[in-house]
């Protein structure tokens, strides 16, 4: 698969290295000649020097035969224009872009960019993960107006009681249990009669306000 990456910064260079190691053909468009030279020394002749908002530069990078274009620069304007050119001028099937200012995420979606990566959301997710109690991990935000998130809760092996049915759990409003992963790796859709045991992991959708209550309900008697 041929992939064009816009931007040879830390993210773009790391992505290029990973894609090359996976056997893909990669071209990186970068308007800093020194960065181009550094990247070529590191990965081989993969860079094209120039402005990614210029169709001639994208053409030189082989965008007309690319299956994916990924924009990783710190400029949302550059990322947006490059992806739009890829999509509408070169008919690239899939475009992916970093969005540095989260208020512009909706704009990128309206512009037809297939996948938009909110940098602020990524940073917040990592910070929430670091601040979360042991056994509680934020997996991803759930789109919508009420700030819900998909979370993973590991029920400690010393949890008391050792097993309970879903119908007996006093779940907070706005919480939905999506999947139960047993210690042996098997998965169960948590119907009302499903049993959750100590040592299981539960995937759930929850609001921020209900997180602590949900964890307390799923991990009673835990010493963690």
Largest sheet: 6 strands, parallel
Instruction: Count every beta strand, where a strand is a DSSP E run of 2 or more residues.
Output: 13
The chain-level structural class is: alpha/beta
Element order: H for helix, E for strand: EHEHEHEHEHEHEEEEEEEH
Q: Looking at this structure, what is the CATH superfamily of the largest domain?
A: NAD(P)-binding Rossmann-like Domain
> What top-tier CATH class of the largest domain fits best?
Alpha Beta
Mean pLDDT, rounded to whole units? Answer: 86
The CATH architecture classification of the largest domain is: 3-Layer(aba) Sandwich
Sequence stretches where pLDDT stays below 50 over 5 or more residues: none
* CATH fold annotation of the largest domain: Rossmann fold
What is the helix tally?
Answer: 7
What is the terminal-to-terminal distance?
Answer: 46 Å
